Amino acid sequence: MSMTVIYILLGIGAIAALMLIQRRRTSTAMGALVQEGFIKDQCWDSNVSLVTEKGSGRFAVVWPGTFKLFHASQITGVTIDEQEMEANRHRYKVVVSIDDPECPSIGLTTNTRKDRAEQWAAGIDQWRRQYAESH
Description:
Elements: H1 3-35, E1 40-45, E2 49-53, E3 58-63, E4 66-71, E5 75-86, E6 89-98, E7 105-111, H2 114-132
Antiparallel strand pairs: 1-2, 2-3, 3-4, 5-6, 6-7
């Protein structure tokens, strides 16, 4: 086997190990959130997760290893960010703006899935309107 192939395999192995570690850290943070009494309802998963609480206007942003709680009334906007990667290929991200100095916004990537970005943005905004107006 040539050294180039060995380096490629080592690189792929390292990336897979990092992905596994991040998934476990996110799982641990989600478990801690549920252990605090948070009852998961809807969830939009990406590099971070936005999780709503059943029957309340609270939601959590879950990163690998930690989470932060917010209320629907703190969402100031939900937009779709489109970036051109190359000719006729775009990357989409749902940007949720939050009225919080420590976390002014989060981005939920959907990669090349414009339909998923539109669906997520509509779902998050619909949930926000339902609970923000009653607060």
